[in-house]
């Protein structure tokens, strides 16, 4: 498709930089004016003794399974680990979820993570948190994970402990591109590497390793390399979603981010238990939480916990991109009944803060005079 429909010359094979303006692909030398590194990332695994020898699955290899494991251990309670732990539990596997942190989704909003953790407990997922895994061994066809409180024997181990950028073997030293195995390729805000002729995009260079974020970065690179653009990565409002049940979706700042930057915020929360559609659906466990700059309606960040939180979040992301304040969302008519009404209710909560004692007295006098 790229070659025949889009007019892109495609060269298949291992590529590496060989000079200031050359790259070699399986012996074929190609010259460039601008180059883009977009080699992505791969699943990483923690250095637990015996883990590699015992064998494990990742989010890439798990789909090659041909039968359901009766017992599954998931190492890592981040987004990938949580998504797959719940999926296999609902398929009928006994699931044990391990993490060194004291609760699941440690980087997520704590209230949101608490809702999901309780859901896992109700569904029968065994949580082993604040733990250090000592070693993994084979015992017949089973894999045994040893930790401080005992051991667990399972049929398969799934590792969801993050991703590592693919930077090895690219010849980056030959072209003066700075990189390391943890951070990946070093880029500036315009996705330019330490070699001004070479850019990078996606998981190989970015903190947020999401497919949609790689797409947004590619658009920046196209504009900056081909059309003299000055687009910046920091100008983007980056949403993401953890696809559990309920989903947890977020965009912008958390309260802790604002605190680190000495930005005072006001936070408005609407529980789904106050939203008629959520009550009718039996999905009251969730909320919409929006942070605004204190004293204004400028949206700095938001978290949504709901069955379709990823869909609901788009309205708030659009408001942030368009520079619309939370008060404006109160004017958006939402069909009744929908769970997205929680967003309008949150905006209404902000508008009520504008009813100061002075304004309230003025209204009372007006209404008394016009009665």
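-> sequence recovered:
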């Amino acid at each position: 498709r790229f070659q025949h429909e889009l007019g892109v010359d495609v060269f298949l094979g291992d590529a590496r930089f060989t000079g200031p303006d050359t790259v070699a692909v399986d012996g074929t030398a190609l010259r460039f004016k601008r180059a883009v590194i977009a080699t992505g990332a791969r699943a990483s695994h923690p250095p637990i003794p015996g883990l590699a020898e015992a064998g494990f699955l990742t989010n890439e290899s798990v789909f090659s399974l041909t039968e359901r494991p009766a017992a599954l251990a998931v190492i890592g309670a981040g987004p990938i680990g949580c998504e797959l732990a719940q999926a296999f539990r609902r398929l009928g596997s006994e699931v044990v979820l391990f993490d060194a942190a004291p609760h699941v989704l440690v980087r997520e909003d704590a209230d949101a993570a608490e809702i999901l953790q309780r859901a896992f407990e109700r569904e029968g997922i065994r949580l082993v948190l604040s733990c250090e895994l000592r070693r993994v061994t084979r015992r017949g066809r089973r894999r045994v994970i040893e930790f401080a409180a005992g051991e667990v024997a399972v049929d398969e181990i799934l590792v969801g402990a993050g991703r590592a950028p693919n930077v090895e073997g690219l010849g980056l030293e030959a072209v003066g591109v700075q990189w390391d195995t943890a951070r990946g390729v070093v880029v500036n805000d315009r996705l330019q590497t330490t070699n001004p002729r070479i850019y990078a995009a996606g998981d190989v260079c970015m903190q947020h390793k999401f497919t949609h974020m790689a797409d947004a970065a590619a658009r920046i690179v196209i504009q900056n390399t081909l059309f003299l653009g000055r687009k910046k990565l920091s100008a983007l409002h980056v949403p993401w979603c953890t696809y559990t049940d309920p989903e947890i979706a977020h965009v912008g700042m958390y309260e802790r981010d604002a605190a680190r930057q000495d930005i005072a915020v006001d936070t408005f929360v609407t529980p789904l238990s106050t939203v008629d559609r959520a009550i009718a659906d039996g999905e009251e466990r969730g909320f919409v939480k929006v942070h605004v700059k204190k004293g204004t309606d400028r949206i700095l960040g938001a978290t949504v916990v709901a069955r379709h939180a990823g869909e609901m979040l788009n309205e708030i992301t659009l408001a942030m991109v368009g520079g619309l304040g939370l008060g404006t969302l109160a004017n958006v008519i939402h069909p009744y009944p929908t769970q997205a009404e929680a967003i309008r209710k949150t905006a209404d909560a902000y508008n009520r803060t504008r009813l100061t004692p002075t304004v309230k007295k003025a209204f009372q006098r007006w209404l008394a005079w016009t009665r």
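The chain is about 25% helix and 25% strand.
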